[in-house]
Design goal:
The protein is mainly beta. The protein folds into two domains: about 10-50; about 60-375, Neuraminidase. About 15% of the residues lie in helices and about 40% in strands.
Length: about 375
Amino acid sequence: MHMAAQHPTAALLLCEVVMEILSWVPAKPLTRLKLVCKSWNSIISHPHFVKLHLHRSPKNSILLFTRTKRLTLGEEEKQGLVLSSVESFIRNPSSSLDAQENRHSLHLEDWVSGSCNGLVCVAHILCHHNNDICDIWFRLLNPLTGFVSENSPCLRVNVHNSFGFGYDESSDSYKVVTVIRDSSGTVTAQVYSFGGSSWKTINSLPAFLFFAGDINGHFIGGTLNWLFLRNPHGAHYDWSDVTLDMLMIVSFDLKSDTHKQILLPTGIDEIPREVPTLEVWGNSLYLLHDYNNTHFIAWQMKEFGDENSWTQLLKISFQHLGVERLFLPKFIFENGNIFMLRGRLPFEKVFYDRRDNSVTRVNILGHNRYFDAFDYVESLVQPC
């Protein structure tokens, strides 16, 4: 018996239903579901579906950038990326760092400069001996799908530079920005759009900027943000001589290639003892610093770009945290609810949960290990 051909409208409706269902499936199983049939592969690979799925993906993963140092002759230095859930990492950091599943090896000359929409920007840095000049190439990785982009054109810079990586929605492009300060104090930005053939030079940045805290720019709302120190003397500085009016947040707009200054919270009335840090979690910018060498303070900019929305999220004593001095957290978990600090012991981590005011101390075994972490979301994104 001959079966009648499916009506085009019905076929289209079925395709939309399948797309809707698949868009809620986690990214990792989707990479296997592409093998089910040609139509599913076509749906999952379509750019519209990739963006829809990214929008609906849960933001509950972190990317761990790990480095194991050589301790004795014959041992091999290793470097790589590890994907982990926030819950797993907090429950057992050592196990998460050592996990072989979802581990991706990197070259020893690689440095992770940021993560955005499931893509990781990696800088491959080769420095020349006897001078301060380095050659840098950038590439994009998707640790979940195995996607690796072509390298950017080589960029020759001095050692006084900082990186940032983000997404420009207006042009649907991923960009890396390198901020460079030369020996004369001149500051320029080099911007590269992945898939392009050259770097673009931006000369409008203020002179005599020094990088305070993390050298990686923090991506939020189509901008990259750094905490800079403006030194009016144009030379090296001593933190003990820094004043509040010398600190500034510089926000670089990836759409317009322009920058603006974001004012610090008005509630900061004295320079912290240690260098403050910027962090991003979700859609909020955070400023973290010590107060009088006795308290840890976190500010949250609830509406990015609105300086009036700076809110003091917490002020907690070192005594309650069980730390003698503040080693500022490198990252924040759970929508700004959990902060990680360094404890009294060299390899001890302190997790503070502001929801119940609890403190958890964890000794991360393996004193030969360095790690950093990035807010991460698993995705199927693979730029052209």
